[in-house]
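Sequence, please.
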């Protein structure tokens, strides 16, 4: 970049553009290529009036798209990022286990593990600092060091080594996705941190998840295997990639319960890659129900609502640790989540069942109510009043492959059932002149 003379006085940078410069480059691109910062930060600085061209700033109409011309004098004071650090915040913590070496906490869905871009407060680290009575952390340079004894949390890898990176993570040995509820191990001492990190690396720490999948993998027990790396089409996602472009990953699974359209499966991690279970399950054609990032919400519409991902992954950690005062002792911590019960699974299956209905192509038949009894099908009638259908009512019915009638709250009608009134359980309006009716006999 020898097309301009660059002068620096304190935090003021001046570029003298040569008279013959004619590249017609935008101002924001010009500066981003010559200053160690992002184009977004340059644009923010221009908008804030911290950049001038020939004395004029954004207050004088200077825009980020202005072409740089020969003879321009560009002065900039780039906006400084907020100081890197983390403050204690009185966020409630669900502590499953604690001793002088480590903590095991239940991270709720929706909470980010440590500060980062877009999440500088409200993280698990902020809650941990408050829990151990630590003072605020302030990082002025990547070379700064923290004192684990004074902090109350391990400082291994706690300070970001890239200037401006806000990822301060004292005590953090491993992470969980923001949308996952699960147990997370936090080291209080550097010795504990190193020993736990060794266990994760050597795969002696056992981690078990429960996942609700679309469909049921075949065979019922096996291994999802495939290297995981950045998705070449979307850098915010992970994907199964060729071995040379990712890290080896293996997930052991076992189907524990088959439902009409979903399966509850136990997943054990042999490796620990970002989004490993989600990526492997999606690659196998059985994404987690409601996982909008990896296809679990797109395959069947209607499942990505308020009842989604908090229930879909459950983490169990069994930790064996030694070398810092507890030899050959194992600590087992199980995450018991009260809401993950049979009723919850039934409700999730009902949502999946309804989604299957909405995704199917349907064909209609005109039948009497009595004929509808024998079909054991969901009924549609042309009446709009609430109440009970009678034998004389004419209904429209449809057969849907894969439909579990009972999972939607109805009762199967046997072919020999006496013809009687149909009690309306739920109504909706699928089209003009029709009312959808889920019904039970009796």
């Amino acid at each position: 970049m020898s097309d301009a003379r660059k002068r620096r006085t304190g935090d003021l940078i001046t570029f003298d553009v040569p008279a013959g410069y004619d590249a017609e480059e935008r101002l924001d691109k010009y500066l981003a290529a010559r200053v160690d910062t992002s184009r977004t930060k340059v644009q923010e600085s221009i908008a804030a009036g911290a950049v001038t061209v020939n004395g004029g700033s954004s207050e004088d109409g200077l825009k980020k798209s202005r072409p740089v011309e020969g003879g321009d004098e560009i002065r900039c004071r780039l906006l400084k990022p907020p100081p890197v650090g983390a403050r204690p915040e009185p966020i409630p913590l669900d502590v499953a286990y604690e001793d002088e070496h480590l903590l095991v906490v239940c991270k709720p869905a929706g909470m980010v593990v440590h500060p980062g871009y877009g999440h500088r407060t409200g993280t698990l680290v902020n809650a941990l600092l408050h829990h151990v009575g630590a003072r605020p952390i302030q990082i002025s340079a990547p070379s700064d060091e923290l004192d684990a004894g004074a902090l109350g949390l391990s400082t291994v890898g706690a300070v970001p080594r890239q200037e401006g990176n806000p990822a301060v993570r004292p005590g953090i040995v491993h992470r969980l996705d923001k949308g996952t509820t699960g147990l997370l191990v936090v080291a209080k001492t550097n010795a504990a941190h190193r020993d736990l990190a060794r266990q994760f690396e050597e795969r002696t720490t056992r981690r078990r998840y429960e996942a609700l999948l679309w469909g049921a993998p075949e065979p019922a027990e096996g291994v999802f295997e495939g290297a995981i790396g950045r998705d070449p089409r979307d850098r915010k996602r992970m994907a199964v990639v060729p071995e040379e472009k990712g890290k080896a990953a293996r997930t052991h699974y076992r189907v524990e319960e088959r439902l009409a359209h979903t399966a509850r499966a136990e997943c054990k991690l042999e490796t620990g890659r970002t989004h490993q279970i989600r990526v492997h399950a999606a690659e196998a054609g059985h994404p987690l129900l409601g996982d909008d990032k990896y296809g679990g919400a797109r395959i069947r519409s209607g499942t990505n609502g308020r009842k989604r991902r908090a229930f879909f992954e459950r983490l169990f950690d069994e930790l064996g640790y030694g070398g810092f005062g507890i030899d050959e002792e194992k600590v087992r911590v199980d995450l018991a989540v009260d809401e993950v019960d049979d009723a919850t699974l039934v409700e999730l299956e009902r949502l999946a069942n309804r989604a299957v209905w909405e995704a199917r192509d349907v064909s209609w038949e005109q039948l009497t109510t009595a004929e509808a009894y024998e079909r054991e099908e969901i009924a549609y009638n042309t009446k709009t009043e609430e109440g009970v259908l009678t034998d004389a009512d004419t209904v429209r019915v449809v057969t849907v492959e894969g439909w579990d009638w009972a999972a939607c709250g109805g009762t199967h009608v046997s072919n020999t059932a006496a013809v009687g009134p149909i009690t309306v359980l739920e109504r909706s309006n699928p089209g003009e002149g029709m009312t959808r009716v889920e019904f039970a006999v009796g």
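Residues 233 and 310 are 27 Å apart (CA to CA).
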